[in-house]
Amino acid sequence: MKPLYTELCAVDAQGNMTLHVPDGFNFAYDVVDRIAAEEPDKRALVWVQDESSALYPVTACHERTLSFSDISRLSSETANFFAARGIGRGDRVMLILKRHYSYWYILTALHKLGAVAMPATYMLNHDDLVYRMKKTEAKAVVCLGEDGLCKKISAAASEAGCVAGLFTVGCTVPGFERLDVEIEKYPPEFRRIKTENGDPILLYFTSGTTGRPKIVIHDETYPIGHIQTALLWQNVRDGGLHLSVADTGWAKSSWGKIYGQWICGSAVFAYDFDAFSAVRMLDVIERCGVTTFCAPPTIYRFFVKNDLLDRGFGRVEYATTAGEAINPEIVETFLRKTGLQIHSGYGQTESTLLVADFVGAPVRVGSMGRPSTLYHPIVVDENGAECDVDEAGEIVMPKEGRYDNGLCVPSFPGLDLGDTVWDGDLYRTGDIARRDRDGYLWFIGRVDDVIKSSGYRISPFEIESVLMEHPAVMDCAVTGIPDEKRGFAVKATVVLREGNRGDLAMTNTLREFVRRRTADYKAPRIIKYVDKIPRTFSGKIRHVEIREKDANANGANAGDAEK
Prior knowledge:
This protein is of the alpha/beta class. 28% of the residues lie in helices and 25% in strands. The chain has a nine-stranded mixed beta sheet with strand order 4-3-13-12-14-15-16-17-18, sandwiched between helices. Strand 14, helix 13 and strand 15 form a beta-alpha-beta unit. Helix 5 crosses helix 6 and helix 13 crosses helix 14.
């Protein structure tokens, strides 16, 4: 059979995509079950468990390959299991399954029921869990059968008072029902129920670099929006094997581990690990024949800075990155050593792909790429007027429609159902960029992170990218710190590579290194050396945490200041 994207979209000679959204589309029935019926043995999922995984403490990897008929059958059994326990259309079910293969058939089962899946990371603490359970009135939680995780979830569910069912996979834990064993008692067919395009199917909480996380809701058409992600950015192919390095608790999993990939005919690769080992990951990528690869910049940076690119990418055909801006030095080194160009992509938990280095388009290293032809994002000033070339402004999209149920969404699939991201007729991303003459966008920073110093507007990312070029720098973050003369002074928080000392000589070296490559006013006035840069669960720099620590300490230490 032809990949299903051929029925759901059209791409013209210039690469512009138009989506065709059928009424009553449901990914579980119209993609998974259909492929299972027409090509039952087609590979859907390749799962390899690393020796670091806590679920099965073993010295060798566990591996499993699931076909589309396997996913179809297991998801129907699971849907029948959930239905027997009163879970149905609109009910919220939290999933904390890391990278275990059960995630894929359980998520598909919830789609068949018309229920709302709430993927979450295992790193949430007690208060995080209680907040999410209460905020969403979660009806059930499905998690890995790990004692520590289950105890944490059980205590949170008890305090939240709304969770009716607790289920595990992999191991039996007191107080939890063993889902992956019990579903074997249920029929392998599930009769299709009616769903509407505007029905919610996914609920995320944004990781956020500031403030409390907010709810993001996606509807039945969301998977179709990710055709662009997989086809025109990740460049997956029918019969290929795609790896996106992401925990299933994050929206990046929806970007790269199920929807667009399966619609385009590619299998997905799940590398299940607890303790990250770059060497083991690279060996598995090579051995299992991964054809397309996507990872956050932190992974690429680790590969490059630790000189590990002599392995792993011999069979990879295409590489992409998203999550935060990637430093040009990493892109150029990776290309030189592997022959693979890293293609950047930009979007948010609230969206699918908004800006990218699309397939076939020239890459400008350091840029975000060009705007998506599905969403047409633009850069606007503080008054909402479109910015001139090279003028900094916020990335936004105009509102284009509403569903009959009153939920505020555009007429194209892929954007958040809720009202929280809308400001009048504009969807505001909160990210600052500039557009060059050829339409490429260049990331500057979050609205709250841009530094205003001596009348200049300074991009933290620009300075971070320059610092990352220095061989002594492993990681860094750039923030503004109050300064009587300048308003704000540029501060760099730096992690050095092993064997380097964070002394005055290094400070002067790094400051001069930035000054020679940018401008004097952009050079950090303060450099502080630390062991680790604070990041969100999904790997983004928490500039706000650095600023808060500086404020609590009443500014930088005297020993860190410019001499």
